[in-house]
Amino acid sequence: MDRFLLMHCYTRAVETGSFSAVARELGIGQPNVSRHIAALEQHLGTRLLHRSTRKLTQTPEGERYYVEARRVLDAVTEAESNARGEDTPSGLLRIACPTALARSYVMPHVKSLLSLYPEMDLELQVSDRFIDLVEEGVDLAIRIGTLKDSALKARRIGTAERICVASPAYLASRPAPKSPEQLQRHDCIVYTLLSAGNTWSFKQSEIEVNGRFRVNTPDGVYRAAIDGLGVAYAPVWLFQEALMNGKLVPLLVGHLGSPTPINIVYSARRLLPRRATVFMDFIAKEFSHTQELTEGAVERLLRKRRR
Predict the structure, then answer these.
(1) Is 28 helix (H, G, I), strand (E, B) or coil?
(2) Of the candidates 27, 25, 61, which has an alpha carbon nearest to the alpha carbon of residue 43?
């Protein structure tokens, strides 16, 4: 019995959610994957997965075994690489990233990254929904906000400073708010995937806002603000160009909330492969050279706008 093959089949079945996907990766056919996992369950004397026509679900025993099996497999891969004296990162790295960050600040650097590390492959999953790294087989995720999950580790790579904005057309129909509390009299554009819901945090208060338009993407928030649908509150980089050309007007600049960290997060239970660490080093360096992603971004933008 090839114990490592059985463990690999099981961990990848968990991470991909599909026997077929594992079969394609290994080139062994789906029936063989099923037999390998059944043999592993027989060897362990316990069921690891519940199978259905729609999805695979881990049993409690399967969840515990996955954590340990993944740690063993990662350690073996790292040990073999070190024994060969390999310093060049290789293999597939799966990254999850929010849409606005991916479009403007990650994608422009992908070509340079892959040129620098020709033996490395990159899969970028662009989405604003919450990604379960283990369940979806993702190595790293770039997230905006304070880390709350104790099963994850984080490396800070930047800062998100938020700004409140509205279009001149919107402000022509009603006076600009002078305090966060006055936002309750305005139509506010609600980003539905915000962890705080429709509560906006300012320097000395948290305000529950409402409006006639809600949307689940930052691009939707941007478009709605430009079109005069209401007041928006989001990271400054989203509105940078529109603020400079006058399509949007900054609001409540003396009341803006504290900067929010931008982190790369990863499972605390997995040994990071070298390709993951070089990606973190690379993107952290690029972000550190990007003014919109460092502290003081709002003040710098407002100074440029006043010139």
Answers:
(1) coil
(2) 61
| Distance (Å, whole) CA 71 – CA 57 | 20
Is residue 90 scored above 90 in pLDDT? no
Q: Distance (Å, rounded) from C-alpha 204 to C-alpha 235?
A: 18
Question: Which single residue is written with the structure tokens 């789906």?
Answer: 30
Comparing CA positions, the residue from 152, 4, 151, 140 lying closest to residue 72 is 4
In this model, does residue 282 exceed pLDDT 90? Answer: yes
pLDDT at 149 over 80: no
Q: Looking at this protein, which amino acid is placed at residue 280? A: M
Question: Please, what are the domains in the chain?
Answer: 3-83 (1.10.10.10), 91-160+260-306 (3.40.190.10), 162-251 (3.40.190.10)
Calculate the average pLDDT of the chain. 90
**Residue 84 CB neighbour total at 10 angstroms:** 8
pTM of the model: 0.74
pLDDT band per the 50, 70, 90 thresholds, residue 101: very high
Region of 27 on the Ramachandran plot (φ > 0 left; ψ -120 to 50 alpha; else beta)? left
Q: Both tokens of residue 19?
A: 């026997």
Cα 152 to Cα 237: distance, rounded to the nearest angstrom = 27
Q: Which two structure tokens, joined as six digits, stand for 28?
A: 């062994």
Which positions ≥6 away from 67 have C-beta within 8 Å? 269
For the stretch 190-221, pLDDT in tens is 999 988 889 999 998 999 999 999 999 999 99
E-strand ranges in 67-115 read 91-97
Helix segments in 166-267, DSSP class H: 168-172, 218-226, 236-244
- CA 29 to chain CA centroid, Å, is 33
